[in-house]
Amino acid sequence: MSKAKSPKLIPLSPVPLYNQLKEILRGQILDGTWPPLSRMPSENELGQRFDVSRITVRQALNDLQKEGLIFKIHGKGTFVAKPKAFQNVSTLQGLAESLGRQGYEVINRLISFKTVAASSQVAQRLKIKEGSPVSEIKRLRLVNREPVSLEVTWLPLDIGQQLEKADLVTRDIFLILENDCGYNLGHAELAIDAILAESELTRLLKIEEGSPIMRIERLTHTDDGTPIDYEYLYYRGDAFQYRLRIDRHRTDSGEKS
Amino acid sequence: MSKAKSPKLIPLSPVPLYNQLKEILRGQILDGTWPPLSRMPSENELGQRFDVSRITVRQALNDLQKEGLIFKIHGKGTFVAKPKAFQNVSTLQGLAESLGRQGYEVINRLISFKTVAASSQVAQRLKIKEGSPVSEIKRLRLVNREPVSLEVTWLPLDIGQQLEKADLVTRDIFLILENDCGYNLGHAELAIDAILAESELTRLLKIEEGSPIMRIERLTHTDDGTPIDYEYLYYRGDAFQYRLRIDRHRTDSGEKS
């Protein structure tokens, strides 16, 4: 590995030393000085190179780890994380449909497919009666063989039953709904927030408890406005990113109000 | 407070008891049985009511806390979180512009406004030379007096200088750019992911280290496509949500490929 440039820290700056070091290391990770999956220098080496204490180095590395730029392997050292996979969500697409274009392999592991009583929330979204039967599908989605998201999908029972014979391992539900079942999808409403991984996510996504999760609540409609597919998508924060383009003024007629 | 309905858990179900309990409590929080800021029953009370062990109760509550639905105050008990504020990002708007319409008060605290050397990342996004001077603005944004996000903005120096006299406490930068400086904003590119709060965010947003953060990287362009405003927005995961509508087929001409 080529020796990294070592810009100097400014001891008398109002910006704390660990913050200066963090910015320098972040820049070097993003510009490829430290390539993905390479091992970072040890705390001692970094301390010597930048002439700061080990505590300062540790705080900078700690912050970069929280940001998902580096990860630690016990007894092996600190490594640079791979760039996050991203999905462009400027149009409504399934994960395989979107990532497949970028050359990623998307495979799903079916965790469960069952009929459950609609909770009040599911019932309200799908405009059915609370407690009436709906299909619930839980899938783990693997990008290049690594678990990236858990997706929980609720469908009206008659639609769910049409999916029972479908290939849920390699195909997006959107494409099955359109191509096999003949529904035309229209728009989806999304809510995006950040939560921490709890027990089930920890286990399935192979991450530590308390890891960051990007959570998407998504309600998809047919083109006549009927809600057809309600989901919670849980993405590993360290592995995935949504990208989109937003216009200052909408030029289409999609948005009401 | 009215006594909550207590649906029964199913001991022989393949779904673990804590998971069943979690789903019931989540439903009761979302349907208003337990209103925002109300105190939840103690672990003992819940254990008795649902005939499960205290460990089961604790795991269910632990998961709901990770999801941001409840929070604990040491020595006082467990409380229901307020519903998250949300911003509709189907069109490009500043926080005050968007939340003001919903009746929220948005006030900003200016943390710093300075001239810095453009990092390679900032330089690349703003299409300027690395190391050349740019304006860096750090603002804490308070919704109804509570800190909700930290926003770090980089602007080309000549534009930053025009903002030095502007009212950054009550106004969005977007509106200042448009109304005071005469720029027409066009579109923005966003990347959304989830990270954990590190030292600075912990301090400014008044949250615990390791709390979930929804992070937005946003590059805003004028209507002729010139990048003008590059930002990192850090939202408290427990307090904020992005909402948007996505169409299966774009009907406008905004998106290239």
From TrEMBL, chains A, B:
Domain HTH gntR-type span(s) in chain numbering: 15-83
Gene Ontology biological-process entries: negative regulation of DNA-templated transcription
Record flagged with keyword Transcription: yes
Molecular function via GO: DNA binding; DNA-binding transcription factor activity
Keyword list, A-Z: DNA-binding, Transcription, Transcription regulation
SUPFAM superfamilies, alphabetized: Chorismate lyase-like, Winged helix' DNA-binding domain
Alphabetical list of PANTHER family matching this protein: MANNOSYL-D-GLYCERATE TRANSPORT/METABOLISM SYSTEM REPRESSOR MNGR-RELATED, MANNOSYL-D-GLYCERATE TRANSPORT_METABOLISM SYSTEM REPRESSOR MNGR-RELATED
Protein name (database record): GntR family transcriptional regulator
